[in-house]
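Re: that backbone. C-alpha cells:
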C-alpha cells in the first residue's frame, strides 16, 4: 500500500508532498512527530488546468522509466533536463515513495535524486532505502554515485554495530535498486520492482482501443488506449479458466449488458461482443459506444484477479454520461472495500466525482504566487461537524468548485 510520496524540483512540483512523506518533509505534526494522512485504496487529485496534477502522475512514470531504461532516456523522453527541472529552483530533482507491505509493521521509504553534469547529461546522484519503525527511520541502503559505492544494512541489524559493506557501483545512468533487486538481504526490493514495472496509467481515446487485432499482449492499458487489445490478450493467456468469471463480473457492472462474449478461435485476433438486454444479436466492440468502451476498460482494470499495484485513471468522467459515470463511481466505492492489494489514483475536473469521495481522500491542486504547485488535503480546509465524519453530499461543490 502506497502511503504517500513527495517530489522536489520536477516540472511545477518544486516541493510537494502527498500522504505520508519522508521524515522531516511536509505534513509532519511537530507535537506528536506522527506522519499523518496515509493514502487510502482510492485517492483523488483535483484542481484547475495546469496546476500540476498530470506532473504528479508523471513523477511515477518518470521513476519507472529510470528503472527500466535509465535516467538519460527518462529525461530525453521529456525534452531534456531543463524541460523537467523546476526553473528558478536550487538543488536536484528528487522523488520519494513511502509504502507498507501487507501484514507488515514496518513502513518503507525509497528515495532517489537525479542531477545533471555540466554537459546536461543526467545521472543518478543518490538512492536511499529506509525502514520506518515507529518514529525511528533506519537506513538500510545508501547509494552515492560520488562515492561509487552502495552501503547497506540488514533490516535486523543495528546501525551502531553493523559492519557496512561496500559494493562497487559505477553505472550512473541506471538505478542501483534495479541492480540489487534480487539481493537476499532485501526482499522488499522485489515489491519495489513490481511497483515500478507494473503500475498502470489509463487515459485514452476509445477509437484506437477498438482495434482488437493489432497489439501484442500487455499487462495493463497504455496511456492512450491502443493496447486494450493487448489487455484482452493478456487476460485470455493468463486467466484461462477464470476468464469467463472475470468477463461476467465486468458485464454485471455495465448497464444494459447481459453478457460479454469472447471469440478467441483465432488467437491473433480475439473478438469481443456485447449481448445487450434490449437486443437479440450481440454487438461487436466496434459497434459499442465510446463511453461503453471506456467503462469496459476501467472495469477490466478494477476487476482483475491480479490487478496492478497502482492503477491511475485520468479524468474518468470524460466520455461517460451521467448513468455510466454513476456506475463507475459505484464500482470505485466497491473496489475500496475489497482487499485487492492495489490502489486507485484518479484525477478529475468534475465535482460529482469529487463529491463521491470522502474529503480525506481528495487532494486539491493550485498554483502559488510563484507559479509552483501547492497541494492541500480537502478535509484540512473544511470544518466538519464531527472530525470530518459528517459532510454534505455536495461538499466539494460548496467548498472547492472554483478550484477545479
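Recovered sequence:
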Amino acid at each position: 500500500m502506497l502511503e504517500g510520496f513527495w517530489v522536489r524540483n520536477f516540472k511545477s512540483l518544486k516541493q510537494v508532498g502527498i500522504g505520508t512523506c519522508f521524515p522531516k518533509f511536509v505534513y509532519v505534526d511537530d507535537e506528536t512527530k506522527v506522519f499523518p494522512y496515509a493514502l487510502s485504496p482510492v485517492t483523488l487529485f483535483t484542481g484547475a488546468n495546469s496546476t500540476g496534477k498530470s506532473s504528479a502522475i508523471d513523477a511515477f512514470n518518470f521513476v519507472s522509466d529510470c528503472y527500466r531504461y535509465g535516467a538519460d532516456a527518462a529525461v530525453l523522453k521529456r525534452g531534456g533536463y531543463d524541460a523537467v527541472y523546476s526553473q528558478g529552483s536550487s538543488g536536484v530533482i528528487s522523488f520519494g515513495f513511502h509504502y507498507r507491505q501487507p501484514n507488515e509493521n514496518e513502513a518503507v521509504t525509497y528515495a532517489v535524486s537525479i542531477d545533471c553534469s555540466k554537459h546536461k547529461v543526467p545521472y543518478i546522484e543518490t538512492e536511499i532505502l529506509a525502514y520506518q519503525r515507529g518514529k525511528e527511520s533506519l537506513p538500510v541502503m545508501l547509494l552515492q554515485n560520488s562515492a561509487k559505492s552502495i552501503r547497506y544494512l540488514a533490516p535486523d541489524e543495528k546501525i551502531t554495530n553493523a559492519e557496512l559493506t561496500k559494493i562497487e557501483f559505477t553505472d550512473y545512468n541506471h538505478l542501483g535498486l534495479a541492480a540489487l533487486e534480487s539481493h537476499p538481504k532485501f526482499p522488499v526490493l522485489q515489491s519495489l520492482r513490481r511497483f515500478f514495472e507494473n503500475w498502470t496509467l489509463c487515459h485514452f481515446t476509445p477509437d484506437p482501443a477498438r482495434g482488437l487485432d493489432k497489439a501484442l499482449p500487455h499487462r495493463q492499458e497504455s496511456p492512450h488506449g491502443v493496447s486494450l487489445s493487448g489487455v484482452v490478450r493478456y487476460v485470455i493467456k493468463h486467466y484461462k479458466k477464470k476468464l469467463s468469471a472475470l468477463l461476467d463480473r465486468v458485464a454485471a457492472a455495465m448497464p444494459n449488458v447481459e453478457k460479454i462474449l469472447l471469440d478467441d478461435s483465432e488467437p491473433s485476433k480475439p473478438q469481443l461482443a456485447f449481448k445487450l438486454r434490449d437486443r437479440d444479436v450481440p454487438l461487436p466492440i466496434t459497434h459499442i459506444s465510446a463511453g461503453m468502451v471506456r467503462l469496459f476498460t476501467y472495469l477490466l482494470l478494477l476487476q482483475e484477479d491480479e490487478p496492478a499495484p497502482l492503477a491511475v485513471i485520468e479524468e474518468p468522467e470524460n466520455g461517460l454520461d451521467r448513468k455510466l459515470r454513476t456506475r463507475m463511481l459505484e464500482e470505485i466505492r466497491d473496489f475500496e472495500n475489497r482487499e485487492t492489494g492495489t490502489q486507485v489514483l484518479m484525477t478529475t475536473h468534475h465535482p460529482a466525482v469529487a463529491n463521491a469521495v470522502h474529503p480525506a481522500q481528495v487532494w486539491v491542486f493550485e498554483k502559488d504566487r510563484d507559479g509552483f504547485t501547492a497541494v492541500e488535503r480537502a478535509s484540512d480546509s473544511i470544518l466538519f461537524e464531527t472530525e470530518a465524519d459528517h459532510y454534505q453530499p455536495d461538499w466539494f461543490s460548496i467548498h472547492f468548485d472554483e478550484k477545479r
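The chain has twelve helices and 17 strands. The mean pLDDT is 76.
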